[in-house]
Design a protein that fits this description.
single chain; alpha+beta; 5-stranded antiparallel β-sheet
């Protein structure tokens, strides 16, 4: 602080919070005060022109609002020799406590005596405001290496206050953090009278700054731009590309990036190998993608490509005839954009799914067999989850529920609202009881338009998975209409049906659920199909055994025709 206060170049002053003079340096005294020590207590505004007093008083209010406030003001002031000087003042408020300003300091810088008028003063203010708004750090040193002008960015970068450093010789008192190479570059510019540029790693490599050193009339002007993000992004981009290439080359999918005009921009190793071995062609960057397509696919490709260029994502399954054999591929087209939203091209991803399609066909066949068994019984079979929603029903159950509700029924519907009102509450109670692991039953009398009154026994059984964990309830509706007519044969038949029902309700839903889960997992991740196939075959064998067991029981039982 004493360096600028004792400066012989800059008028400096310390004032009380109300604007009265507290202390002045010799430069200030020589310019604005008579040869007297009676300056103490004189208002600073008393040295200004009347039209500038209001600006000074309003600035005092702002300076007193919080310690550390800094304000730049330009005043036209009359010196002791009656000469008008245009002076730029930097005011800074200080405080010993956090909320009470006890002193305001100011350092003045004499502007070149061009035109001492209000418009000129305003232009200086705007000039400084412009410099302070720059994103680049800016400063000027004279040819004696004294700092004569800085902007806000300079202050923030070097964490200093310009008031304490204006007029300081940077060779004698270097600014902490300012690289010696920059000072050397400034010295060289003065010596050779030539501008130069340099790139400096500041603050132990934490910042990379590009400096431009230029010659001006007063000395040397320096502009510094922090280019750290540019270099960081460059390294990040390089690492990202390496990582992306590694990922793309480690996948079994074929990946290409195609320009909006249809030219190959990049591809991974799988694409290159597949094109060479399957299609007998060399994949090259800059080649048009249509030169690699089978002729009959070109028209469809063009239509799809146009959709993707408009922002749509398209996924297709295509069966390709490759000479002596055919294979299924899943092809995904997806638009690729830059960070600014500009369309770069289209990502063309193809995946071999032939084994997946074969597995789906096997699942389809197994499911058809399973449904055939469930639909071969005269009982209505319904499986409910913990929310009372239908997760499976056979054809008998579907017909029965449709005949009672009058509405189409599908998996996911809430069951109890489809039943006659007098039975809905009772069935819900039995379902809740079975959810706790119990077996339950009730009698139900339903009206049929075709067969009149029908009597059903409704059985509820907990359904568990392979680990013994319950995941739902099976509800079996057994028609008991002719029970009184053929009691003997019906009793044996009912025992068999009950056994079949128990097998169906407790054992069969498990492979159904497992097969469905495997199907969904294979659909989402086709690459896992080979690993999941053994589990699928295991469940299929269980189903075969169950089917055989049920068929055997059906064959050994003489069922009465009640029609």
């Amino acid at each position: 602080m004493r360096r600028w206060f004792d400066s012989k170049l800059f008028p400096s002053v310390s004032i009380y919070p109300d604007g009265r003079l507290k202390m002045v340096n010799e430069r200030f005294r020589a310019m604005f005060l008579p040869n007297s020590d009676s300056y103490h207590g004189i208002p600073f505004s008393g040295l200004l022109k009347s039209k500038e007093v209001d600006l000074m008083m309003r600035s005092l209010v702002a300076l007193n609002q919080s310690p550390g406030t800094q304000i730049s003001l330009i005043f036209s002031m009359s010196t002791m020799s009656s000469k008008i000087e245009v002076i730029e003042w930097e005011f800074l408020s200080h405080a010993q406590s956090e909320d009470q300003v006890d002193e305001i300091t100011a350092i003045g810088r004499i502007r070149e005596p061009l035109i001492h008028s209000a418009p000129y003063s305003n232009s200086l203010v705007y000039h400084q405001r412009y410099l302070d708004a720059l994103v680049d750090l800016f400063f000027i040193v004279d040819r004696n290496f004294r700092l004569i002008s800085v902007n806000r960015k300079f202050e923030r970068y070097f964490q200093l206050n310009r008031v304490n450093w204006l007029g300081v010789n940077l060779n004698e008192n270097p600014i902490p953090g300012m690289h010696h190479q920059l000072l050397k570059s400034i010295d060289l510019a003065i010596l050779l009278n030539q501008p130069n540029e340099l790139l400096i790693s500041d603050f132990d490599g934490m910042a990379i700054v590009k400096y431009k050193v230029a010659i001006v009339n007063d000395g040397v002007l320096v502009l510094g731009r922090d280019v750290t993000p540019c270099y960081a992004n460059s390294e990040k981009l390089k690492r990202s590309k390496q990582k992306l290439d590694a990922i793309l080359n480690s996948t079994t999918d074929s990946n290409l990036l195609i320009s909006p005009e249809g030219y190959v921009l990049s591809f991974n190793k799988v694409s290159e190998i597949e094109m060479r071995t399957v299609f007998k062609k060399e994949l090259k960057i800059g080649s048009h993608i249509e030169s690699y397509l089978i002729p009959k696919l070109i028209e469809d490709f063009r239509k799809t490509f146009e959709k993707v260029l408009e922002g749509e994502i398209v996924v297709k399954e295509v069966q390709l005839n490759l000479g002596s054999y055919s294979a299924w591929y899943e092809i995904k087209y997806q638009p690729v954009y830059a960070e600014n939203g500009e369309l770069i091209g289209v990502s063309f991803n193809s995946r071999y799914i032939d084994s997946y399609k074969q597995l789906l066909e096997q699942l389809k066949n197994r499911t058809e067999i399973l449904n055939a068994v469930f639909n071969s019984t005269q009982s209505a079979l319904i499986i409910l989850n913990y929310q009372g929603e239908i997760t499976y029903l056979n054809q008998v159950a579907e017909w029965l529920l449709v005949s009672q509700s009058g509405y189409p029924v599908k998996e996911g519907d809430a069951l109890f609202g489809l039943l006659p009102a007098q039975y809905g509450h009772g069935c819900k109670q039995k379902w809740e009881l079975s959810l706790r692991g119990n077996h339950a039953s009730l009698e139900m009398e339903l009206e049929s338009h075709l067969h009149g009154t029908q009597y059903y026994q409704v059985q509820f059984h907990p359904v568990k998975d392979q680990e013994g964990k319950q995941f739902g309830v099976s509800m079996v509706l057994i028609n008991r209409t002719h029970q009184h007519q053929q009691l003997e044969r019906l009793a044996a038949q009912n025992r068999t049906l009950a056994k079949i029902t128990e097998v169906c309700s407790e054992s069969w839903p498990i492979p159904i659920r497992v097969i469905r889960e495997l199907e969904e997992q294979i659909r989402l991740t086709p690459d896992l199909a080979p690993r999941l196939l053994p589990a699928l075959l295991k469940q299929a064998r269980k189903l075969d055994q169950m089917i055989y067991s049920v068929n055997k029981m059906i064959a050994e039982t003489s069922f009465q025709d009640f029609n």
